[in-house]
Design goal:
Blueprint (H helix, E strand, L loop, with lengths): L11 H22 L7 H9 L7 H8 L3 H13 L3 E6 L2 E9 L1 H25 L1 H12 L9
Antiparallel strand pairs: 1-2
Helix pairs in contact: 1-5, 2-3, 3-4, 5-6
């Protein structure tokens, strides 16, 4: 083990970000090729964290790690595309829930199928055992982030 880290070696958060972008870019390209409505990677991320019964913009922003303004913009674009709708929140008269429309549900299921296909393609590229080890490592409980 060297006392001097390799300056060209990328850290794990960078590698995880690259992996997420690989899936997002491939998914966007596949959805575009399938004739789906054009969406951004932020909108894809929003769809991934949306609860079936609806989610507030504040919760979406927190789950995505973005500002409320960014989440609002993503929601607005998806509402305009007919993929999401805003409904009153039964728990709060001041808030609205964001949920998928029937068209949005169809797009969501299509994206899930495409992601399964991408995972199969990745397994062919890096090996099924490597993919299973990656999945196991990411599914393992990591515990709360260390507080310093």
């Amino acid at each position: 083990m060297s006392l001097h880290p390799d300056p060209t070696r990328r850290n794990l958060p960078q590698l995880l970000g690259d992996a997420r972008r690989w899936f997002e870019e491939a998914l966007l390209a596949a959805m575009n090729a399938a004739g789906g409505p054009p969406v951004t990677s932020t909108q894809v991320q929003l769809f991934a964290v949306l609860d079936a019964e609806g989610t507030t913009v504040a919760t979406l922003a927190r789950r995505m790690g973005v500002t409320r303004q960014t989440a609002h913009q993503a929601v607005h674009g998806l509402v305009s595309a007919g993929l999401l709708e805003q409904i009153p929140d039964p728990a709060s008269a001041r808030q609205r829930l964001i949920r998928r429309t029937p068209t949005g549900e169809h797009a969501h299921h299509q994206a899930e199928r495409l992601l399964k296909d991408l995972e199969t393609q990745l397994a062919e590229r890096i090996g099924h055992e490597t993919l299973q080890a990656l999945r196991a490592a990411l599914e393992a409980p990591w515990g709360p982030p260390p507080a310093h």
